[in-house]
Amino acid sequence: MKQYTLKVYPKGWGRECWRVIHISGKETLDKLCGVIIDAFDFEDGHMYEFCMNNRMYDADNYQSDGDGKYQRSTKGKIDRLRLAKGQKFSLHYDFGDDWMFVISVQGIDEGDENIVPYVSKEKGFLEQYPDWDDFE
Fold first, then answer.
1. Is the separation of the CB atoms in 78 and 28 below 8 Å?
2. Of 111, 128, 129, 104, the residue nearest 26 (C-alpha)
3. N or C: which end of the chain has fewer CB within 10 A?
4. How far apart are CA 73 and CA 78, in angstroms?
């Protein structure tokens, strides 16, 4: 079983705010989304998609509401993506606010399939819903 080391950061925030996540290839894209959202202390419950070509709403994206027949579903395992070291793809989270998280594959190793996903390094803080009244 493969274990992936992923550096994740909100688009445009790569130097200020990021997380390094370790996750088993047996986990689903749904689980990866949950780990990312938890790592940045965002609220869960929004629709999302994984953009393998980094374009929102593309026909080839893996959708949280995908049925697996007409749209790719996020219920598939990470190993099925055939990721390569150095590859970048995105998580488009919350179709109203359009958060884009860049995911960079830092490493792929043989690992224990029973590993619990975890964050090994982090930098910065980002508010999901900043108080826009402070900017007036």
1. yes
2. 111
3. C
4. 12
In the chain, the percentage of residues whose pLDDT exceeds 90 is 71
Does the structure show a pLDDT above 90 at 87?
yes
β pairing state of 118-123 and 48-51: unpaired
**If you search the block for the tokens 């150095």, which residue do you land on?**
86
Residue 99 has pLDDT above 70, yes or no: yes
SS3 string, 20-38, reads: EEEEECCCEHHHHHHHHHH
In whole angstroms, how far apart are CA 93 and each of 34, 37, 43, 85?
Answer: 11, 9, 11, 23
Residues in the chain: 136
3-state helix, strand, coil in the chain (%, to 5): 15, 35, 50
Strand locations in the chain, DSSP E?
2-10, 18-24, 48-51, 62-63, 72-73, 88-93, 99-110, 118-123
- Among the listed residues 36, 3, 37, the one whose alpha carbon sits nearest the alpha carbon of residue 20: 36
pLDDT at 120: 97
